[in-house]
Amino acid sequence: MEDYRKKQIKTMRFLTMFCLLFLVSIKEADASSIAERTKDWAWPSDGIISDLYNTRNGHHKGIDIAGSINESVYVVDSGMVMKSYYSNSYGNVVFIKHASGLETVYAHLNKRMVKQNDRVKKGQVIGKMGSTGNSSGVHLHFEIHNKEWTITKKNAVDPMVALGKVEVGQAVHASVQKEKLTASKENKKRKSVEVVKSMPLAEENKAALHKDKAKKSARKVIVYTIKANDTLWSIAKRDNVSVAELKRWNNKQSDVIIEGEKLLIK
Questions:
Q1: Does the N terminus or the C terminus of the chain have fewer Cβ atoms within 10 A?
Q2: Could you please report the per-residue DSSP string of 49-113?
Q3: Looking at the structure, do residues 184 and 209 belong to the same domain, yes or no?
Q4: pLDDT band at 248 (very low <50, low <70, confident <90, very high)
Q5: What's the burial of 72, exposed, middle or buried (CB within 10 Å: 0-12/13-18/19+)?
Q6: Rounded Cα gap, residues 46 and 264, in angstroms
Q7: Dihedral sign from CA coordinates of 216, 219, 221, 226
Q8: What is the CATH number of the domain that holds 224?
Protein backbone atom coordinates (compact mmCIF):
# COMPACT_ATOMS: atom_id res chain seq x y z
CA MET A 1 0.00 0.00 0.00
CA GLU A 2 2.83 2.36 0.91
CA ASP A 3 4.60 1.68 -2.40
CA TYR A 4 1.39 2.45 -4.26
CA ARG A 5 1.09 5.83 -2.50
CA LYS A 6 4.70 6.67 -3.32
CA LYS A 7 4.04 5.88 -6.97
CA GLN A 8 0.95 8.12 -6.89
CA ILE A 9 2.96 11.01 -5.40
CA LYS A 10 5.70 10.61 -8.04
CA THR A 11 3.08 10.52 -10.80
CA MET A 12 1.40 13.67 -9.47
CA ARG A 13 4.75 15.48 -9.26
CA PHE A 14 5.58 14.50 -12.83
CA LEU A 15 2.17 15.67 -14.10
CA THR A 16 2.52 18.97 -12.20
CA MET A 17 5.96 19.63 -13.70
CA PHE A 18 4.69 18.70 -17.16
CA CYS A 19 1.73 21.08 -16.86
CA LEU A 20 3.96 23.93 -15.66
CA LEU A 21 6.38 23.45 -18.54
CA PHE A 22 3.46 23.27 -20.97
CA LEU A 23 2.00 26.55 -19.63
CA VAL A 24 5.40 28.27 -19.81
CA SER A 25 5.84 27.18 -23.43
CA ILE A 26 2.36 28.49 -24.28
CA LYS A 27 3.13 31.87 -22.66
CA GLU A 28 6.44 32.12 -24.52
CA ALA A 29 4.71 31.28 -27.81
CA ASP A 30 2.01 33.91 -27.13
CA ALA A 31 4.64 36.54 -26.31
CA SER A 32 6.53 35.70 -29.49
CA SER A 33 3.33 35.90 -31.53
CA ILE A 34 2.35 39.25 -30.00
CA ALA A 35 5.84 40.67 -30.55
CA GLU A 36 5.59 39.69 -34.23
CA ARG A 37 2.10 41.18 -34.62
CA THR A 38 3.18 44.47 -33.04
CA LYS A 39 6.65 44.89 -34.55
CA ASP A 40 5.67 48.15 -36.32
CA TRP A 41 3.94 49.75 -33.33
CA ALA A 42 5.16 52.97 -31.70
CA TRP A 43 4.56 54.43 -28.26
CA PRO A 44 1.09 56.00 -28.07
CA SER A 45 2.34 59.30 -26.62
CA ASP A 46 5.38 61.33 -25.64
CA GLY A 47 6.13 61.31 -21.93
CA ILE A 48 7.86 59.65 -19.00
CA ILE A 49 7.16 56.11 -17.79
CA SER A 50 5.59 56.45 -14.33
CA ASP A 51 4.28 52.91 -13.71
CA LEU A 52 4.65 49.44 -15.20
CA TYR A 53 2.54 46.36 -15.86
CA ASN A 54 1.48 44.08 -12.96
CA THR A 55 2.41 46.51 -10.16
CA ARG A 56 0.02 47.33 -7.28
CA ASN A 57 -0.15 43.68 -6.19
CA GLY A 58 -0.71 42.56 -9.78
CA HIS A 59 -3.78 44.76 -10.36
CA HIS A 60 -2.17 47.29 -12.73
CA LYS A 61 -2.73 45.72 -16.14
CA GLY A 62 -1.17 48.41 -18.29
CA ILE A 63 1.66 50.91 -18.47
CA ASP A 64 1.50 54.61 -17.49
CA ILE A 65 3.07 57.45 -19.47
CA ALA A 66 3.13 60.76 -17.57
CA GLY A 67 3.13 63.97 -19.59
CA SER A 68 1.64 67.41 -20.05
CA ILE A 69 -2.07 68.15 -20.09
CA ASN A 70 -3.50 67.80 -23.62
CA GLU A 71 -0.41 65.97 -24.94
CA SER A 72 -1.50 64.16 -28.12
CA VAL A 73 -2.38 60.46 -27.83
CA TYR A 74 -1.98 58.35 -30.98
CA VAL A 75 -3.44 54.99 -31.96
CA VAL A 76 -0.65 52.39 -32.21
CA ASP A 77 -2.18 50.57 -35.19
CA SER A 78 -5.13 50.89 -37.57
CA GLY A 79 -8.44 49.51 -36.36
CA MET A 80 -12.00 50.22 -35.26
CA VAL A 81 -13.18 52.10 -32.18
CA MET A 82 -15.15 49.61 -30.08
CA LYS A 83 -15.92 52.05 -27.23
CA SER A 84 -15.42 55.75 -26.58
CA TYR A 85 -17.03 56.93 -23.35
CA TYR A 86 -16.53 58.20 -19.79
CA SER A 87 -15.85 55.61 -17.07
CA ASN A 88 -15.62 56.26 -13.33
CA SER A 89 -12.35 54.32 -13.20
CA TYR A 90 -10.80 54.90 -16.66
CA GLY A 91 -12.18 58.44 -17.06
CA ASN A 92 -12.38 59.37 -20.74
CA VAL A 93 -11.36 56.14 -22.45
CA VAL A 94 -11.09 54.73 -25.97
CA PHE A 95 -11.01 51.00 -26.86
CA ILE A 96 -9.70 50.04 -30.32
CA LYS A 97 -9.83 46.61 -31.99
CA HIS A 98 -7.04 45.83 -34.48
CA ALA A 99 -6.85 43.40 -37.41
CA SER A 100 -4.07 41.57 -35.53
CA GLY A 101 -6.68 40.36 -33.05
CA LEU A 102 -5.42 42.65 -30.29
CA GLU A 103 -7.43 45.33 -28.49
CA THR A 104 -5.83 48.48 -27.05
CA VAL A 105 -7.11 50.80 -24.33
CA TYR A 106 -6.26 54.51 -23.87
CA ALA A 107 -7.47 55.84 -20.50
CA HIS A 108 -7.67 59.00 -18.33
CA LEU A 109 -7.91 61.20 -21.44
CA ASN A 110 -8.73 64.87 -21.07
CA LYS A 111 -10.49 64.75 -24.42
CA ARG A 112 -11.71 61.97 -26.75
CA MET A 113 -11.45 62.72 -30.46
CA VAL A 114 -13.07 59.57 -31.89
CA LYS A 115 -16.41 57.86 -31.37
CA GLN A 116 -17.67 54.27 -31.39
CA ASN A 117 -17.47 52.50 -34.79
CA ASP A 118 -15.00 55.06 -36.20
CA ARG A 119 -12.23 53.53 -38.31
CA VAL A 120 -8.83 54.93 -37.35
CA LYS A 121 -5.46 54.87 -39.07
CA LYS A 122 -2.15 54.06 -37.45
CA GLY A 123 -0.72 57.26 -35.97
CA GLN A 124 -4.03 59.13 -35.88
CA VAL A 125 -4.60 61.40 -32.87
CA ILE A 126 -7.49 59.81 -30.94
CA GLY A 127 -7.39 61.94 -27.79
CA LYS A 128 -5.54 64.29 -25.46
CA MET A 129 -3.72 63.26 -22.29
CA GLY A 130 -5.44 64.14 -19.02
CA SER A 131 -6.23 63.02 -15.49
CA THR A 132 -9.90 61.99 -15.61
CA GLY A 133 -11.46 59.12 -13.68
CA ASN A 134 -9.47 57.34 -10.97
CA SER A 135 -6.19 59.14 -11.63
CA SER A 136 -3.56 60.78 -9.41
CA GLY A 137 -1.96 62.94 -12.10
CA VAL A 138 -1.76 63.76 -15.80
CA HIS A 139 -0.86 60.57 -17.67
CA LEU A 140 -1.95 58.04 -20.28
CA HIS A 141 -2.84 54.56 -19.01
CA PHE A 142 -2.28 52.17 -21.94
CA GLU A 143 -3.37 48.53 -22.07
CA ILE A 144 -3.08 45.69 -24.62
CA HIS A 145 -5.42 42.68 -24.59
CA ASN A 146 -5.08 39.50 -26.65
CA LYS A 147 -8.33 38.93 -28.57
CA GLU A 148 -10.48 41.24 -26.41
CA TRP A 149 -10.75 43.31 -23.26
CA THR A 150 -12.70 41.72 -20.41
CA ILE A 151 -13.76 43.15 -17.07
CA THR A 152 -11.41 40.69 -15.32
CA LYS A 153 -8.60 41.66 -17.72
CA LYS A 154 -7.71 37.99 -18.12
CA ASN A 155 -6.36 38.64 -21.64
CA ALA A 156 -4.09 41.54 -20.61
CA VAL A 157 -0.59 41.59 -22.12
CA ASP A 158 2.46 43.47 -20.83
CA PRO A 159 2.86 46.44 -23.25
CA MET A 160 6.65 45.99 -23.07
CA VAL A 161 6.20 42.80 -25.16
CA ALA A 162 4.98 45.05 -27.98
CA LEU A 163 6.81 48.32 -27.37
CA GLY A 164 10.12 47.30 -25.83
CA LYS A 165 11.57 47.22 -22.33
CA VAL A 166 11.46 50.43 -20.30
CA GLU A 167 11.90 51.53 -16.70
CA VAL A 168 10.10 54.02 -14.47
CA GLY A 169 11.57 57.47 -15.05
CA GLN A 170 12.52 56.72 -18.67
CA ALA A 171 11.30 59.08 -21.37
CA VAL A 172 9.63 57.70 -24.51
CA HIS A 173 8.66 59.33 -27.76
CA ALA A 174 6.03 58.56 -30.39
CA SER A 175 7.40 59.22 -33.89
CA VAL A 176 4.27 60.12 -35.79
CA GLN A 177 3.89 59.66 -39.53
CA LYS A 178 2.16 62.49 -41.37
CA GLU A 179 -0.78 61.28 -43.42
CA LYS A 180 0.43 63.29 -46.42
CA LEU A 181 3.30 60.89 -47.08
CA THR A 182 3.03 58.71 -50.15
CA ALA A 183 2.99 54.93 -49.81
CA SER A 184 6.63 54.66 -50.90
CA LYS A 185 7.77 57.29 -48.41
CA GLU A 186 5.65 55.69 -45.73
CA ASN A 187 7.59 52.44 -46.09
CA LYS A 188 10.88 54.33 -45.65
CA LYS A 189 9.71 56.45 -42.73
CA ARG A 190 7.71 54.06 -40.59
CA LYS A 191 6.72 54.92 -37.06
CA SER A 192 9.44 54.01 -34.65
CA VAL A 193 9.84 53.82 -30.90
CA GLU A 194 12.47 56.25 -29.71
CA VAL A 195 13.81 56.66 -26.21
CA VAL A 196 14.40 60.38 -25.81
CA LYS A 197 17.90 59.90 -24.41
CA SER A 198 18.95 58.27 -27.69
CA MET A 199 17.57 61.09 -29.88
CA PRO A 200 20.12 63.44 -31.52
CA LEU A 201 20.56 66.56 -29.38
CA ALA A 202 20.60 70.11 -30.67
CA GLU A 203 24.12 71.55 -30.57
CA GLU A 204 23.19 74.10 -27.90
CA ASN A 205 22.01 71.31 -25.57
CA LYS A 206 25.12 69.10 -25.87
CA ALA A 207 27.25 71.20 -23.54
CA ALA A 208 24.46 71.25 -20.95
CA LEU A 209 24.13 67.46 -21.17
CA HIS A 210 27.84 66.94 -20.48
CA LYS A 211 27.55 69.32 -17.56
CA ASP A 212 24.70 67.27 -16.11
CA LYS A 213 26.49 63.89 -16.31
CA ALA A 214 28.36 64.24 -13.04
CA LYS A 215 25.16 65.19 -11.24
CA LYS A 216 23.19 62.32 -12.80
CA SER A 217 25.69 59.70 -11.68
CA ALA A 218 25.27 60.77 -8.06
CA ARG A 219 21.52 61.44 -8.11
CA LYS A 220 18.72 58.90 -8.49
CA VAL A 221 16.11 59.64 -11.15
CA ILE A 222 12.69 60.14 -9.57
CA VAL A 223 9.22 61.00 -10.82
CA TYR A 224 7.66 63.67 -8.59
CA THR A 225 3.90 64.35 -8.50
CA ILE A 226 3.30 68.09 -8.29
CA LYS A 227 1.29 69.20 -5.24
CA ALA A 228 -0.82 72.29 -4.59
CA ASN A 229 1.28 75.44 -4.05
CA ASP A 230 4.37 73.84 -5.66
CA THR A 231 6.39 75.99 -8.05
CA LEU A 232 9.31 75.06 -10.27
CA TRP A 233 11.46 77.29 -8.07
CA SER A 234 10.43 75.55 -4.81
CA ILE A 235 10.93 72.08 -6.33
CA ALA A 236 14.31 73.07 -7.77
CA LYS A 237 15.44 74.49 -4.40
CA ARG A 238 14.32 71.37 -2.51
CA ASP A 239 16.17 68.99 -4.88
CA ASN A 240 19.24 71.22 -5.29
CA VAL A 241 18.81 71.64 -9.06
CA SER A 242 18.10 74.65 -11.24
CA VAL A 243 14.76 75.66 -12.76
CA ALA A 244 16.45 75.53 -16.19
CA GLU A 245 17.44 71.90 -15.58
CA LEU A 246 13.90 70.96 -14.52
CA LYS A 247 12.50 72.56 -17.66
CA ARG A 248 15.07 70.88 -19.91
CA TRP A 249 14.56 67.40 -18.38
CA ASN A 250 10.78 67.72 -18.82
CA ASN A 251 10.73 69.52 -22.21
CA LYS A 252 8.89 72.48 -20.67
CA GLN A 253 8.87 75.85 -22.38
CA SER A 254 7.21 77.81 -19.55
CA ASP A 255 7.28 77.89 -15.73
CA VAL A 256 3.62 76.85 -15.50
CA ILE A 257 3.01 73.58 -13.65
CA ILE A 258 -0.26 71.82 -12.76
CA GLU A 259 -1.20 69.98 -9.58
CA GLY A 260 -0.99 66.22 -10.22
CA GLU A 261 1.43 66.60 -13.13
CA LYS A 262 4.42 64.22 -13.13
CA LEU A 263 7.88 65.83 -13.11
CA LEU A 264 11.13 64.04 -13.89
CA ILE A 265 13.94 64.97 -11.48
CA LYS A 266 17.43 63.65 -12.30
A1: N
A2: EEE-TTHHHHT--SEEEE--TT-EEE-SS-EEEEEEEEETTTEEEEEEEETTSEEEEEEEEEEE-
A3: no
A4: confident
A5: middle
A6: 13
A7: negative
A8: 3.10.350.10
